[in-house]
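ARCHIVE CARD
Drawer: 12
Card no.: 0347
Subject: one protein chain, sequence and derived structure
Cross-reference: see card 0346
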Amino acid sequence: MRIGYARTSTIEQDAGLNGQVRELDAAGCEKIFREKVSGTKTDRPQLQAALDHLRDGDTLVITKPDRMARSTADLLAFVKAVQAKGASLVILSMGGQMLDTGNPTSKLMLTMLAAVAEFERDLMLERQREGIAKAQAEGRYKGRPRSALLKADQVRALKAEGLRPAEIAKRLEISRASVYRALEA
């Protein structure tokens, strides 16, 4: 059985998720697991469900390696988990080539390409950090707005009504620490 897995990082990426599902359908996947969750999160229930669904002789199909893993070690751990079930992993788009971990050459190429992808990501993050530091030095970057402080008036009003900080935090969907900061401001 061919089982597909599609993932996007955010809810706004519906077109990307739909595109992956179309590719997986075209590749003959009989069942497709899909989710919208960051690749850096370790809790990806649909990926786990896809791995749990695998049986001996099955094939797990993904469109690109970054849909499954964020690092070479992570990807190779998934390959190992798939192979431990007697299944193989197929990646549809690896520089125009399809890779199937069922053969040694594809496995070698996958390891090398995953290492290059991880290297590129590390370089991108380094450039991003440098850009943020430069923008901060020039006073153009202040970071993410502290949304909890925007609710300071609501926090004070609820406190005046006699609510405890934990209740205020729950009602306003902010942390308890943010409630205390808002009360101090």
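Annotation on reverse: The beta strands are 2-8, 31-36, 59-62, 88-94, 97-100. The longest strand covers residues 2-8.
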